[in-house]
């Protein structure tokens, strides 16, 4: 929609807590939709368990998501581990170098 802005969120959870993110996402989406009269502000693009960091949907879209991540919180170097496991994304942006 033209003129509409949202915040795309990529979440990596600790082991066995991915379901909490989905519950939180539903609650936040409902609250923000109600508060801002139907306008989505948060968009949970990816949520993954920290014990399995490989992205199988290997295409330019997911590579772009990886290259554009801005880390807010990074416990135990999880983001670096995810980038290393998904080094395949570099083939879509060879001039940018490695994502790790």
Keyword list:
single chain; 100 residues; alpha+beta; two-stranded parallel sheet; 3 helices; 2 strands; globular
Mean pLDDT: 84
Per DSSP, the total helix count is 3
Structural class: alpha+beta
Q: Oligomeric form of this entry?
A: single chain
Low-confidence stretches: none
- Major sheet details: 2 strands, parallel
Spatial order of strands in the largest sheet = 1-2
Q: Count the E strands.
A: 2
Distance between the termini: 33 Å
Q: Rg to the nearest angstrom?
A: 15 Å
Order of helices and strands: EHEHH
Strand content: 15-25%
Coarse morphology: globular
Provide the helix percentage. Answer: 25-40%
Task: Give a concise summary.
The protein has 100 residues and is α+β, with helices and mostly antiparallel strands. It has three helices and two strands.
Layout: helices, strands, pairs:
Elements: E1 7-13, H1 18-35, E2 42-49, H2 60-67, H3 78-85
Description:
By secondary structure, this protein is of the alpha+beta class. The protein is 34% helix and 15% strand. It has three helices and two strands, in the order βαβαα. It has helices at 18-35, 60-67, 78-85; strands at 7-13, 42-49. It has a two-stranded parallel sheet. Strand 1 (7-13), helix 1 (18-35) and strand 2 (42-49) form a beta-alpha-beta unit. The longest helix has 18 residues, at 18-35. It is globular and about 40 Å long.
């Amino acid at each position: 929609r033209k003129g509409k802005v949202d915040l795309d969120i990529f979440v990596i959870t600790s082991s066995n807590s991915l379901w909490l993110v989905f519950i939180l996402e539903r609650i936040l989406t409902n609250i923000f939709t109600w508060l801002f009269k139907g306008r989505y502000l948060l968009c949970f693009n990816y949520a993954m368990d920290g014990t399995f960091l490989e992205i199988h949907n290997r295409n330019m879209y997911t590579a772009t998501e990886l290259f554009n991540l801005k880390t807010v919180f990074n416990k135990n170097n999880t983001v670096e581990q995810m980038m290393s496991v998904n080094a395949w994304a570099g083939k879509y942006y060879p001039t940018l170098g490695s994502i790790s």
